[in-house]
Write a structure and sequence with these properties.
about 675 residues; six-stranded parallel beta sheet; six-stranded mixed beta sheet; elongated; alpha/beta
């Protein structure tokens, strides 16, 4: 075997260099013969001896050198293998199927298993699956994995076995594409712990507002008011100091807090207990005190966290108060919101907004008004109210409406059949886009979510935007509005517009059909004045009644046809009672012009069943599932619908889902209810 071993490279040259030097001396010897024969003969004798010695040494030393080389290679291989076994970095070799075929001691210690050979790597690291191993094109892959309490960066290198297959006498496949995977684990546990500790110590800014400060004080004797304030202050300060935070009262009903991020996490896990705790303060006050909390964190600077907290507190107040909102750059989280917002007795805000709206409208020549998609009576009635305001101020106004539902149809016909209104009073979206310009005001009513407005593109075209709505604000809102008047306590947008009408101009005159539309909006949204009605609701209705609204005429407008009545009755009759508290049903849409309206009415009817806390009615319409959610006072259906991508009010909410079957959506509703009950958000 040693004779068959052939040396090559630099070692071969080194072994043959003496022979090459002998050949050089031979040439010199030939040259010397021409100069002196005796000297040449003498050198020839030396060359004979030299070549004899060289040949002897080459033949004698070659086997010794080969033996030494083999011995060195063997020892070197053993050293390499031992070094690899003792390598401090966990290392293993995987076959094509992801099974472990070799690993070092550090890898065994990492997985706490000395017998991992031939086991799948997925059995130890569930996230390391066959499809995540590097392909031929990638060659290398890297991603984070965790095992027990340790965190690792796993690096994988693909090792092709093609060359081995070419030189193998065993594998005969010419296109053999076998491979191995080298897996390295770099422990990031300490780094992750340090980063988390540092992150937990980062600053969070919070703002706490008392929602009904003035109303609560008015409900208690004057001599005891200072005690009520002191008790509230004590509750707030004790709660914040319990999390090692700082709380500073900046106004009579406002607090600024400084917290660690870890404290906010603990508050979130307990769903901000202060929201319920502060309601227990009672020294004879008829009205329980409620608070709103806004927290900002994970900003790039302290000032950005402060801005986040201001945005969060605005959202909390806009959604009705009695809740906490946590805002980060990536998301907004909501907690609480289980009680109705207190209606404000004063109309100062309505008057201020009315004057601001008048200034905006008079500064432009054209007014475009739009509500939400598949408009209802409230959005249409509010649009008519804004139309009357614009006409009172001698400005041209048009209403954008695409799909006319059965509930809105009789109201629109009143205006289309009247000679007192322009033929182009109502526009489609495309016509509105062609009409809009820099001198146009866009008034959005009964919606503050841009994606479900009648024409979202108008929001980008018009520079001056006004938003009037009574729905609680969510994460998605209309940005850069010139004027925003969103009041969650209002029963309907028609109620808000009715109040604005009273302050927009002296002696404003509303026509009978316009008053009917706005009265209808209030009546429908309050379910015939049965839900979410306050003093101002009846005052707005009285104002419209004085201006010509006819109750009998309105009632006739909303009588149902037989098909709609049967569909509603069928939805009620087929309802499933889930967990003894929640009614879930499906409203058929065959042969019904506006099935979503019927579905909403069916949801209201289901609340008349004793023991039902909330109802959910699904309607399949135009390839989309519409969910109408209703409750009386025990369940906040808005929070439930927000988890499914919708929104609304505490007692009236909804959601739209594309590309799903009703049975699948019912399963989603049940899963959402189960999860919220498990988390303690629902009881």
């Amino acid at each position: 075997m040693k004779k068959r071993v052939k040396l090559k490279g630099r070692l071969k040259i080194y072994m043959q260099i003496s022979m090459y030097l002998g050949l050089l001396l031979l040439l010199v010897d030939i040259g010397i013969y021409f100069l002196d024969t005796r000297a040449g003969f003498l050198l020839t004798c030396f060359l004979v001896f030299y070549f004899a010695m060289i040949l002897y040494l080459m033949l004698y030393n070659r086997p010794i050198i080969i033996n030494e080389l083999v011995s060195f290679a063997t020892q070197y291989g053993q050293i390499q293998k031992e070094l690899l076994r003792e390598l401090s970095v966990p290392y293993s070799l995987l076959d094509e199927d992801g099974k472990i075929i070799w690993y070092n001691h550090a890898f065994a210690r990492a997985i706490h298993n000395e017998k991992a050979q031939r086991r799948s790597v997925t059995s130890f690291f569930s996230s390391v699956t066959r499809d995540r191993l590097p392909s031929v094109e990638e060659g290398v892959a890297e991603f984070e994995i965790s095992y027990e309490e340790s965190e690792y960066i796993a690096k994988f290198t693909r090792i092709s076995l093609r060359e081995m297959a070419d030189d193998s006498d065993i594998i005969g496949e010419e296109e053999y594409q076998g491979c191995l995977y080298a897996m390295y684990l770099f422990d990031e546990t300490a780094l992750k712990i340090a980063l988390k500790e540092n992150d937990d110590q980062s600053l969070a800014v919070g703002m706490i507002y008392l929602d009904n400060y003035d109303e609560a004080l008015e409900s208690v004797e004057e001599v005891r008011r200072s005690l009520l304030i002191a008790l509230i202050d004590r509750k707030v300060n004790k709660y914040i100091s319990g999390f090692d935070g700082i709380c500073k009262k900046i106004e009579k009903d406002k607090y600024l807090t400084i917290l660690r991020k870890s404290a906010v996490t603990q508050m979130s896990e307990k769903r901000f207990e202060l929201l319920e705790d502060v309601k227990t303060v009672n020294i004879g006050n008829e009205m329980a005190v409620t608070i709103s909390i806004g927290v900002g964190l994970d900003g790039l600077s302290y000032s950005q966290n402060y801005e986040f907290s201001r945005t969060a507190i605005d959202l909390a107040l806009g959604r009705g108060g009695d809740q906490a909102v946590v805002k980060t750059p990536e998301q907004i989280s909501y907690y609480g919101g289980k009680s109705q917002q207190v209606e404000k007795n004063t109309r100062v805000k309505a008057r201020v907004k009315a004057h601001a709206l008048r200034e905006i409208i008079t500064s432009k020549d054209r007014i475009l008004i739009m509500g939400h998609q598949i408009g209802d009576v409230d959005s249409f009635g509010a649009a008519i109210g804004i139309y009357r305001i614009a006409r009172t101020l001698d400005r041209r106004a048009q209403i954008v409406i695409n799909e006319i539902t059965t509930s809105v149809q009789p109201l629109i016909e009143m205006f289309q059949n009247s000679q007192e209104y322009e033929p182009d009073m109502f526009l489609k979206s495309q016509q509105a886009l062609e009409t809009a310009g820099n001198n146009t005001v866009l008034v959005v009513v009964d919606v503050n979510k841009p994606s479900i407005t009648e024409c979202p593109e108008l929001l980008k075209v018009c520079k001056s935007i006004v938003v009037l709505d009574h729905h609680r604000q969510g994460t998605e809102t209309i940005e850069n509005a010139t004027l925003s008047y969103v009041e969650a306590y209002a029963s309907s947008t028609c109620e808000m517009v009715s109040e604005i009408l009273q302050y927009i101009n002296d002696g404003v005159r509303i026509k009978g059909e316009e008053a009917d539309c706005m009265y209808s909006g209030i009546m429908i949204d309050t379910n015939n004045f049965m839900t979410k009605t306050g003093v101002r609701t009846f005052e707005a209705a009285a104002f419209l009644r004085r201006n010509g609204a006819d109750v009998t005429r309105v009632r006739k407008l909303f009588r149902e046809n037989a098909a709609e009545y049967k569909a509603k009755a069928d939805a009620v009759g087929q309802a499933e009672i889930y967990r003894n508290d929640y009614a879930i049903s499906i409203c058929r849409s065959d042969g019904i012009q506006s099935p979503t309206i019927v579905g909403a009415q069916a949801a209201n009817e289901l609340l008349n069943i004793k023991g039902i806390k909330a109802s959910f009615v699904l309607t399949e319409y135009q390839g989309r599932i519409y969910i109408s959610a209703r409750s009386i006072d025990e369940v906040n259906v808005q929070v439930i619908m927000e988890r499914m991508g919708g929104g609304g009010h505490m007692n009236v909410a909804g959601c739209q889902i594309d590309g799903s079957e009703p049975a699948s959506v019912i399963g989603t509703i049940k899963g959402t209810l189960d999860k919220m009950i498990e988390e303690g958000e629902l009881k």
